[in-house]
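All the exercises in this workshop are built on plain-text protein records. A record pairs a protein's sequence with a compact description of its fold. Backbone structure tokens are a discrete shorthand for how the chain folds in space. Once this layout is familiar, the rest of the handout is easier to follow. As an example, a complete record with its sequence and its structure tokens follows.
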Amino acid sequence: MSPLPSENSVESYVEALSGARSTAEIGAKLESVLKGMGFKSFAYVHVRPPLGKKLRSFVPPGSRSGNQVHEFLSTLPGPWVDHYLSQDYGDLDPTLQAAVSRLMPFQWREIGVRNDLSNGQRKVLNEARDHGVKDGATIPIHGPDSGLSTLSIVGGGGEREFQDAYQRSYRDLVWLAINTHEAFLNLAESAPDLGRVRLTDRERDCLVWTARGKTAWEVGQILSISEETVLFHLKNVTRKLGVFSKHHAVVKAVIQGYIVP
């Protein structure tokens, strides 16, 4: 009789995906299984959605180009995610560009030693390291109808520890990524509104103008309220949404449909 798979095994994770009711639930399960494999954080990102697929998307606060970003899952450091989105690094990120032409997982160090990287591409890699996003790898997921997503994993110890975990989990990571992608696509359009919170009209107004790049003082002038009152509303929103900054609150509010910037 074969042993039952452990709670954090890849087999248990794949089985649990069939019962996932939201993309957030997928993210929580994915974080657990990846930590069990020895990885500190991850990012699952839509690079190119399947043809005809209407995925939820948003324009990140502070984005220089105003480009839309498709909904994603990530446990990477918040300051790095904020910076990455506001600087539109998706257009420069050499790991995303490499994923377009590769089928198999690759380590970021393979990209970093290339001689054909532009200054902008090297800047992305260097700033990622400054934020603690250093030893990592990306699994390209070429889905149906020309869709492309990636699952990136980051180590929490030194390079040797990451290498050991990566080599040990290589095959499982491919299986993990494919099943995550399929489950995410199945829920991306129709994830139910679980755990919804109630925002007041004034809280939504403050979020909308913050999403449009206005400071608390400017929002107060627009809404004819004090700067302190604006900050009070934004603090309430961050508490309700379970985040720690107004920028994260804006991103989450847009993704979950509370506001339209």
User: Anything to note?
Assistant: The mean pLDDT is 87.
